Each structure stands twice: as C-alpha cells, then as structure tokens.
Structure prediction request, 486 residues.
Amino acid sequence: MAQANAPGTISAPSCPADGAVKLTMLLTVAVLLLMMAFGLTMRMAQGALIQIDPTIFYRLMTAHGIGMVGIAGMSGSAIMWYFLSRHVSLAGWVFWIHLGLFVVGVVAILGSIFIGGYAGAWTFLFPLPAISGGVWDVGAAATYLIGVILVGVGFLVYLVEVGRAVIERYGNFANALGWPLLFSGKQDDVPPPTVIAAAAIVVFNGISTVVGAAVLIISLINLYLPSFALDALLAKNMIYFFGHVFINASIYMAVIAVYEIVPEYTQQPWKVSRSFVASWNAVVFLVMAVYTHHLFQDGVMPAWALVMGQIISYASGIPLLVITTFSLLTYLYRSGIRWDLASALLVTGIFGWSIGAVPAIIDGMISVNNIMHNTQWVPGHFHLYLLLGQVALTLGFSAWLTRTGVHASLSGWNARGFTIYLLGGMGFAIVFLVSGASSIPRRWATHLPEWHLQDQVGSLFALAAILGVGIIVLPITKRLVLSMRG
Prediction:
C-alpha cells in the first residue's frame, strides 16, 4: 500500500490519465449542480410554488435520474482509477476512451430528452420506450437507448482494463480478492484494500453492465422490429439488476477514497484483515442478489425469489455497517485527526451511506414494501445514499485532490458550505421519508393541496443543499482549472 504522508503534508501524485480524472471531476461538479437544480424545480412544482407542464416535469425527472446515476458512476470510476494506479499498471488512454464515450452518450441522452421529448424515466422499462402515447417518437427513444449503450460500453472498456491490470499484478482474481488470506491465512503479497475493492467491483459491475447492455440492445431493436420482443417480466428483472448494481457500484468505487485518504490523516494504514476480505467477497454476491427487493410487487415472481430478496436485504447491510463503518470509527477514535473539508466530507459520505441503508432495509420487508415502495420513502432512501453518501465522497476526493500546502482547518466559507450542505441534504431526505410514511406517492407531477407543505419544506432544504454544494465546489473548481492549465 502507498506510504502515508508525514503529518501536515499533502501528497496527490499523478496517475495515468491524470488530466482526464481532473476533467471528470469538473464535469461532475457541473452536472451535479444542474441535476440538483432539476430536482429543486420538480419539488417546487409539486408544492405549487411554480407551474410547469407535466410533460416537462417528466422530462426533468428522466434527466435528473439518468444524470445523477451516470455522473455518480463516472465520478466513482475516476476515484477508483486514480487510487488503483498506485498499486497496478493502468493504460491512461483507456480512461480517455471511457470519458469520451460517456460524454458522447450524455449528449445523445440530453438531446433525446430536451429535443426529442423522451420522458420514460431513467429505468427505460420495456416496452415503455416504444409505447409513448404520442409523447415522443421512435427516434427520440432510440437516441436515448443508444446514449445509455454508449455510456455502458465506456464502462465495459474501463472494467476490462482494470481487470487486466489487476490480473497482471496478482495473477488471478482469487489472489486479488484476497482468497489466500481468507481461506488459508497466508500473509504473503496481500492486496491492499483498493485492489480488493476494485477486483470485486469488476466482477459484479461487469456482469451487471453486460446484462444492461443486452436489454438495451433488445429494446432498441424492438423499436424498429416490434416482433422482436422480450418477456416484460424478464426485461424488468434485467433492468433492475443492472440499475441497482450499477448505482451501488458507484458508491463502492467512491469508498476507495476513504481507504486511501483517511490513513494520511490518522497516520495508520488501512489494515487488510480476514473480516475485511470476507466482507468484500460477500459484497460480490449480495450486491447482485439484493435487487430482487425491487420486484416484491410483481405477484407473478416466484415466491422463493421474493423471500430471498427480503433475507438478502437484511444481510446486505452487514458488510457496510459492521466492516467499513466500524473500521472507520476505530481509525478516527483517538487519532487526533485534524479536520478539514476533505476529511469532513469523506466521513460524511460513510455516514450518509450507512444511514441510507436503514430505510432501504426497512423497505426490503415484503409487508412494508407493499405499502411504501411507490411512495416518497424510496427517494428518501436513495437521496441519503447519493446526496449524503456518494456525492459527499466525491466532493471529499475533489477537495483533497486540489489541496495546496498544509492541512487547512475546517473554517470560514468551507465550514459554512459544509454545514449548509449537511443540514440541507439531511432535511431534504428526511422530508421524503416523512412524506413516504404518510403515503405520498412518488413520480407524480401534480400533488394534492394537503401534500404541498411537505413539498415546500423539501424545496427549502433542496435550495440549502444546492447553496452548500455551490459554496464547496467554487474554490475546488478554480483549483481544478488551474491545475489542468499548469
């Protein structure tokens, strides 16, 4: 593992495609603020604070969903690439291809939505792209699907290169996943946490991306050849398998920043123990199997699959809560850590990720899911996961990447921005959870008057979150631009 720095010093060594990583973080900041603005617009429309046509609402909802999922995945891949390059030999040109395909795909997706009028939500559930009721035409749906396929191909190229580099260094995936330590206790050439995490991510995200590409291509062909169809339930399984695994992978990739950066603050390397290895190996299975809790309301699903979904929903929280979160707390305890913006955001990311798992586990109960899944409880869960989890980890990495000089304390505008972002993000997610507990539905463009108060309060917290993020990213953006020019 890379050596920790001396107390108070800063080290951000370059990596293959260092410029592409920094450009990715710039794009992340821009897309993040735009998607947050879309989210605020939707909440204000639901709260009758502004008036927008429902057709526009669903376009914004589609763009917001696919935009946040896409940029979370892209920023997570940049974080993993940056730190994995410390341990294995990566080809920089691969990340440039990955980024290029992402940008081209995003342009196609935005064009399909805001020019072509596509508004079928980011999940593109089959056969919805082909059945729009005249709201969008076949060309718009095809452009959207092609855009998502291009992004997926970029991720496949990226994952293949990561897998190649890991195998080149450790011989096979079993070694990279730490199996010798797990099964025989061998301590020779134990991979660092970043390599173990990357190997696990290549396995489950690679499988999910291939499945997603398959259903996307079938949906694309179906647009022009309706007789070439796929069973709708099978398609839904494939789509939710892909979507659930992909968005979780974006968080797992970003968590690598904690493994690499926190030891610089605590002066203690992140230890690889049998429990750590067992945790990540369990994640390989759990993150793929837990998607079935999205299908509880499909009565035609086999009962065993639904029961498995509930059991695994409980089990999936163990690696997160017991291993990573507990380990982080032990590293911070009596460490004498000096808090700055980067460290505060990274710890917040683990906090948001951890508490976001709780409403997800609750929703993973079949009896609860039948009542709550189509309510705003679910957006409450994944906004904790993303807004206070993945986004915080990404911002923390960006703040660390652009530091200059010695560790700066968390004060001034950094402290103000962080506090406003934390309070705004927590309030925004909690309002969703309260609304879901009150059975307010999700994905409705127009709300009843008795729901407006929650929508308006949520809009206020959303505005605070955007303000906080804006304060945080303004100096980060300036430093990223300067570093790229230099």
In short: The chain has one domain: 18-485. Residues 18-485 form a domain with the Cytochrome C Oxidase; Chain A fold (CATH 1.20.210.10).
